[in-house]
Amino acid sequence: MGDNLRMVVENPNSQLAGICDLQPERMEESIARLNIPREQVFTSPEKCLETAKADVAILCPASAEHGEWVERVAPHVRAILIEKPFAASLAEADRMVAACRKHSTLLAINWPLVWVASHQTAKTYVDQGRIGTLKEVHYYNGNRGPLWHTAEKIERTAEWVSKEKPHSWFYSAQRGGGSLLDYLGYGTTLGTWYFNGLKPLEVTSTIDAPAGLEVDEHSITVARYSVGLSKFETRWGTFTDPWIAQPQPKCGFVLVGSEGTISSYDYENKVTIQTAREPVARDLPVIPLTAPYRNPIEYMVHTLCTGEPLQGPLSPEISRIGQQIVDTAFQSAQLKRTLPLLDS
Questions:
Q1: Which of 85, 112, 139 is the last residue of a domain?
Q2: What span, in angstroms and rounded, lies between the C-alpha atoms of 185 and 188?
Q3: Cα separation of 143 and 145, whole Å?
Q4: Are 99 and 127 part of one and the same domain?
């Protein structure tokens, strides 16, 4: 949320109208760093919505509470930008879509990896046919753990992380915690984007079982498509955080086509491509992001002002397919067997 608030403040076409948290201490760092006036700080969502009269609400609740908060906020704003994942279940995602449709509220799902230039460059090259027909998506992603960093990526200590684990929704099964539910949607949603909406036929997933925890910190999912197999791996506990120093394995995507491959790693200024004509892999500079496609706030303002439909992973249509794969993977891991893609 800290990253999103800074984007609002720094965007010349948006203005911060108010912030709200049921636990006020969680807002203090952003209040201080962004110089937010106290009259714009609330602990009552209804009071915030009534006073701020905002066009857009940015939501960042626990995964299992996305449906509840979208239903609560949708009547009051023109648009909602909800931080990934889409939801904790496909049924909840459909509730969110229905609530926004009822109130004519635009619903967008923010996947921060969309705003990484290397991943958009890879999408451009796939769409240009530079690696032929896409056959496989290989995804590995995560970080040291969700409690190692707070607003704006400020680092915490190991002692603080250990103390907070029992109280954090990230480690609560009931509230949608775990690395699978936190990070798998990135891979399956951007993977669906790379595949131009293609759905897998079946899904197989397995998770670890860390001692003393209710949720996983490592998952591996294999999805079988009509064109081949793809793999999506999530990890809380990478050796380093990818936005500081890429761990090994590196976080990002490798895309395999009928006539070539592309590797696109998080936050790098290059992609690596090999093709049938040039089989020796070579690095190409990323295509720079340009307005209004540089960050979610800029893009939401543009969408509201122009009326253009949402594109790519931010759209509920693409994100819903990603959620279908996540739901199927979660159930597959619980049942310890392969499942056909779920639709409800």
A1: 112
A2: 5
A3: 5
A4: no
Do 77 and 216 share a domain, yes or no? no
Residue 304: inside a domain: no
Residue span of the structural domain in which 323 resides: 114-290+313-340
* In a domain? residue 295: no
Q: For each of the chain's 344 residues, which pLDDT tens digit applies?
A: 989 999 999 999 999 999 999 999 999 999 999 999 999 999 999 999 999 999 999 999 988 899 999 999 999 999 999 999 999 899 999 999 999 999 999 999 999 999 999 999 999 999 999 999 999 999 999 999 988 876 666 788 888 778 888 788 889 998 889 999 999 999 999 999 999 999 999 999 999 999 989 999 999 999 999 999 999 999 999 999 999 999 999 999 999 999 999 999 999 999 999 999 999 999 999 999 999 999 999 999 999 999 999 999 999 999 999 999 999 999 999 999 999 999 87
- Lookup: tokens for 343: 């639709």
67 and 186 share one domain: no
Q: Is residue 146 part of a domain?
A: yes
Residue with tokens 């911060």: 16
d(Cα 161, Cα 328) in Å, to the nearest integer?
30
What pTM value is reported for the model?
0.93
Question: CA geometry: angle at 17 spanning 12 and 19, to 5°?
Answer: 120
